[in-house]
């Protein structure tokens, strides 16, 4: 896991600015299967957004804490009900963002 500095987080936020949320948290809340899907998506994309739906019982801080503690994924930014997540891919060919972040 890369320990992100401020400049690296700013760059990642800029990259994620135009992205649409890839995952949503709804009525079911946080399940182990959902966290497994997040980890699999991080291995493919490294950077994406998650949206918390209005009908969800999960708070933003609760989701942020659970993601960071249960997985190796870092929350780069929270805006309202949207979180920007980053994690280094375990597959070398998918490390587009992490390679660029290490150069910053």
Automatic annotation (TrEMBL):
> What does the record give under GO molecular function?
RNA binding
Name used for this protein in its record:
RNA-binding protein
Q: SMART domains, alphabetically?
A: CRS1_YhbY (SM01103)
An example of a Pfam family matching this protein is: CRS1_YhbY
| Taxonomy, superkingdom | Bacteria
Q: PROSITE patterns, per this entry?
A: CRM
């Amino acid at each position: 896991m890369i320990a992100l500095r401020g400049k690296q987080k700013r760059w990642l936020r800029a990259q994620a600015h135009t992205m649409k949320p890839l995952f949503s948290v709804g009525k079911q809340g946080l399940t182990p299967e959902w966290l497994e899907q997040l980890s699999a998506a991080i291995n493919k994309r490294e950077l994406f957004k998650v949206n918390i739906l209005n009908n969800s019982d999960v708070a933003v801080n609760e989701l942020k804490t659970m993601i960071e503690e249960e997985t190796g994924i870092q929350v780069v930014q929270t805006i309202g009900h949207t979180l920007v997540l980053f994690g280094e891919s375990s597959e070398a060919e998918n490390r587009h963002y992490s390679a660029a972040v290490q150069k910053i």
